[in-house]
Amino acid sequence: MRPIAKFYTALLFLFLFAPILIMLVFSFNGGNSLSVLDGFSLYWYKELFHDEDTLGALGNTLILALCAALLSTIMGTAAAVGMNKLRSKYMKAAMNTVTNLPMVNPEIITGISLMLMFVFFGRLIGMRTSLNFGTMLIAHVTFCLPYVILQVLPKLRQMDPALPEAAMDLGCTPLRAFAKVELPEIFPGILTGLIMSFTLSLDDFVISYFTSGNGFETLPIRIYSMTKKTVTPKMYALATLIFFVILALLLVTNLSDRSGEDVETSPRKKRRQKKHSPS
Length: 279
Hints:
Oligomer: single chain
Largest sheet: none
Strand content: under 5%
Helix content: over 70%
Structural class: mainly alpha
Mean pLDDT: 83
Number of helices: 11
Shape: globular
Order of helices and strands: HHHHHHHHHHH
Number of strands: 0
């Protein structure tokens, strides 16, 4: 690797991770300043755990993200299995286009359109408040669903289609064949989709802002409301904790993908060893 390439790579990583490093350091700031480091202390972590409003918003965010991740993973896995069984190439192209559309559509357009739809149907059935936890959950499932499908669908296409057929020939029902044969093969994709859905829902602000009601506040919305006033290093402490949680989830995702690749390549290695072994 050339020195210029090494320097460029180091500069790129510095540009990407310098803000996170500054946030980590200032979360331990002993003073109230956001730009001057006055020694190291756990004071802001203690203040964070005494802030009931922020902890309540964090709890709402975790509940919403967990529910959205579970629902989108179940629905996305079912949708991926159905799309994989399609025979018409035109139908497959249409389904792929519909799947990709929520990801390329700007979030502000998605948020406004969902808000208008919820308000319209709420007024239609006579609801007093059209926006609540349910509307936010539907909105989060809507934009998380395509990511689950795009994680599970390649795993289904990599799998030998004869495996579930062989299981059914041996007496398994279609549901049992899916649980015993297909599910273990696509589980790394399901786990990756689940974690991606959780992190996307945890991070979302724009769609949550347009589809939230008065009685339910998520953490991104609360942080946005706090930026209108003075932001304390307490938010640095909270962001640091969230960063390490997401880092742990990312490591779990990479390890699951690595284990899935090892399982797929191990039969190939055995075949090669048999071919090259002396008879």
